[in-house]
## 1
Amino acid sequence: MCSLGALRERQSSPCHRWGTAIAALFAALFGLTSASAAAEDGEVKPQRRILIVVDRANDPFIERIKAEIATLGLQVITRGPVGTLEANAREQHAIAAIRVLPSRQGVEVWMADEVSGRPLLRQLVVDERPAGPDHRLVALQTAELLRTSFFPKSSQPPAAASQPVATPPVVIVQRAGLPVEPGVQAGFGFLGSAGGTGTALQVWLSLRLQLGSRIGMALDLSGPARRADMSGPEGGAKTASYLAGGALFARFERNAPGLFLTTGLGAAFAWLSARGQGTLPLLGTSATAFTGLGYARLDAGWRPLHWLGFGITAVAGATFDQVVVRFAGNEAATWGWPVWASFVFGQIDWR
């Protein structure tokens, strides 16, 4: 049995040797536990990756999205548009992939389950308001969608007992109705027919309504600024053409400033007026004819501002019935098969 006096003989006492061994054992166990904890604390989990498909360099829209996602602690990588969005994400080992929609009114987001890798969500985050798109808002909503998907409430630190538990925000992505943009186009040019009635100087007016980013409809009106002259053996006449109709069109353009192209098909009511002159009994006589007209038009121009454009238009069409102009019972000219026109125009859109 060990006594207090034995402490004086530390070098030879059995109590001292057993105490030293037990202390060394505890120290070793403590050291192993500390090293294990340090290793666990120092372990860095692989950072989750978000892929952004980039179709143009130095895109401010993309930079906004990258900045918002970076605040979540996610790694952002980019690559060009090659293959499908899902294939790109799997190739880059990304848990989500994002690309800008062709209309640039929002983004498409693809997500995968982190454990199984199966597709989890395919969502559109868009802003189709007439005053939009607000790219800052789209970027915020995209980051919020990722946050609520990959950082659920259970993985966040518990709230203090005295504080009420906050409800995670819900992201509601609402697609606005089809944007409607009115506009007006005014032009000046020529209108003629191959039947010999001559070419008239014509004023053109088009009241347009854009439905969405591509399709629209228009009300086309036209009247003479100077009548066309025609002549025959029995005399001459001045002819005037009045047109009123509607058309459906498709618009293709880049962001202003830039070029644009519009194609359309329409139908119109045509009124042809001929006023005789020269040889009696045609002096002072006049005649009118009414018919329908089908036509196609092609506009090409340049838009210096998003609401202002200039260009040139070509129109080709044919009447439902051919109009015949007669002098003294003899056929002098025809009008309507075909009808052609070209004019320069200015265009204003309320965007």
Note: The helical segments are 14-42, 60-70, 85-91, 135-150.
## 2
Amino acid sequence: MESVSKIRRWVLVEGRSIRSVARATGLSRNTIKKYLRDDSPPSYQRQSPPVRHKLCNGFDLRLQELFDQDSRRPRRERRTALRLYEQLVAEGYTGSYSPVQRFVRELKRAGAGSGDAFIPLHFAAGDALQFDWSEERVVLGGVEQKVKVAHFRLCHSRKPFVIAYPGEAQEMVLDAFVQALSFYGGVPRRVIIDNPKTMVTYVSRSKERIFHPRFLALMNHYVMEPVACTPAAGWEKGQVENQVQFLRGRLFVPKPAFDDLEALNAWLRLRCEELANRPHPEQQDRTITEVFEDERAELRPLGRAFDGYVEKTVRVRSTCLVQYARNRYSVPSRFAGHHVSLRAYAGRIVVVSGQDVIAEHRRHFTRNISYFEPWHYVPLLDRKPGALRDGAPFVGWQLPDAMHRIREHYMAGKGGDREFVDLLLLAQDHGIEVVETACDLAVAQNTLRLPAIINLINQLVEPVITPLSDACAYPQLTLRPKADCKRYETLCSAEEVAV
């Protein structure tokens, strides 16, 4: 452009000839005449499109095929450009990632409209934590199923934390926050959330929120300020929204397979630590872990963990069962017909009467199933010993080996139900450990009769008197008594006078 301006100035302003300008610049006279006729800047017209990538040998077609396959999948299961690049490398592609990224971006732009504009947000160290849910598919115990994944992200350091649950119930929300704050080792000043019913019970026209009392108790315990986003304004917690998409491709495509939910969560925790070794998006010379170590100093101390349960009052049925979330759990028989407090945690059910915990069960997420603790029904066997054979709580009861052998021995004879029930009742009085030890001794001595076992139990519970180690330590008489039989006659005469 500078040469064109110089040529036009020499000819049109200074009056130099085209021949002399051609001699000075080395350009042809036709080129100089073209510059004089057209005052627009010169441009280069490419004859053919440039070859900017190495997606040759059919890899461009293969990438198009993979992209078309993903377009027919649910959005959460679609692979990112990086995952597609890794797939091509596994198939023999030797080019770089950039051509694949450009190719996928052009495919995504086809038919896409213009995006919205947002204001970039800035968060100080220790200021805010963002939270969101996602739904993923995993394989647990060989069965494919849906799980709900709680996503957390510290806004300054960008460190992620995810944990999976069977659902989004409130007790799982409470447990997720407890686990996340324990993972970070501190408490930020604010938490930015959506408006689910488990956390926000009401949103007024003026956008004021009424938070759920139990969620508010969690916030008060950790002294955090809850900040609910404007409905349909996901950009207010855009970091965790982007994290959901990023981690879906990294952690849940293809579907992870584990034996149970505990193993899945242990793996997710390790992967969060590994992903934190990536460069920080704003401080490229440092990793997320390094920035997090600085942010941890700004987090408040964690303190005692919040007891994250949801409580309700229930009535114990005549079958000694209480119901929660379509399943039934047993309690001791003496509480039948009483009202008790049921506390539902993310992974267990605790039943409380007054200040005492009367029953505790592992939580199950089935439907219409009763879960028994056989010892809760043992006192009823005193009146109904025949129920030991066909009672539902005693089907498949896993007793210690010695007690199981004694049970089979008793049940083989007439009246064995009554004898084994008496043995179980002794366990209620003295403890299962004592009775189990006595049964082990009975099996070892081959004395399986009930009186012999009762004798062994009495020997185990009798107090043991430890003899003095030194005989000289016994008390010594200071005055040796005299052998005098008349003293007995004196005592007899004194008794007669008293009568």
Note: Residues 274 and 289 are 9 Å apart (CA to CA).
## 3
Amino acid sequence: MPVEAQTFGLVVNPIAGLGGTVGLKGTDGPGTVAEALDRGAVPRAGVRVRRAFARLAERAPGTPVRAAPGQLGADWLEGLDLNVQALPPFEVSGTARDTRVATQALTGCGLVVFGGGDGTARDVTDSLGPGRAVLGIPCGVKMHSGAFAISPETAGALLSELATSPDRIGWDEDAEIMDVDEAALRSGRLAPRLFGHARVPSSRKRMQASKGGPSTPAADALAGAARELVNSMALGTLYVIGPGTSTGAVLKTLGATPSMLGIDAVRDRRVVAMDATADELEAIAGHAPVRIILGVTGRQGFLLGRGNQQITPSLIARAGPEGLIVMASEDKLATLAQARLWVDTGDPELDQALSGYLRVKTGQGRETMMRVGAS
């Protein structure tokens, strides 16, 4: 069924990603939004959606868009050179019900664009039913599904091609919609589940792969890489350690238990923070040198922007490309959907500055050169 590219729909989950920088790992569940705001979280989903549609307005001005009302869509398109039709307002509950109600009002659109994470992807695809075309703008903490563009800008580029040259875009009829149990995630247990499939644009360079479940790491090789890294740690430097089993080997080498799904920090080979928020990391860093130890998201290849939003653009900029230390097994690198790594810091200029090539530690004395791209 061809997509009617002139009938884009838009729904935004304005609280998507709210818990990322403050270490909540999502905003599902009662009380988590209030807790995130109490911790100083700042909404970012709408801003990222606007970045995508700004690219569309630049390349295909006047494209018609039917948008959910207010903060659920239309507000983020104000001032862009698009033909926006806002849906009638309805009573907003601040829950997943808002996404579902808005999506159901967009069922006449050929393609529904949503801003959110995996939970939003589930709500949108459930509301539309099977066979309907969707495109996700990555705004959440958890984005394991295959419905998302790699970044807001690549989403905008896809939309502009659909608006101007729809015959050039192929379609994936069976993109996986994944989600994890956030309560389990906060307790340190990753439990991804497949909830269904969706129809999405097919573009290896612009769409992320769905993330497979946990795999068995090359434990011995990574342990050797971790020992080598710990022995080389510079005194007085703050080492920010991202989530995952690969980076967790560094904490284990130091005799500590990693938080695994949070952000930890080490200085002078001592743990100075566990499961830290963005503000806590900024305070701990002070004026000291910063290095950032990262793992690679399975199949997707992300270094930054997926599950580690506590590491702020300012800390990343201080570390610079030379301060990024990446650890991954050779098997993980070999099974990436694309033979490159991605960064999505939230700052497009910083993403460009991080682009190029870096060495990935795969074992003691073993490294693999990988290309890094701005998403």
Note: Confidence is low (pLDDT under 50) at residues 1-5, 213-217.
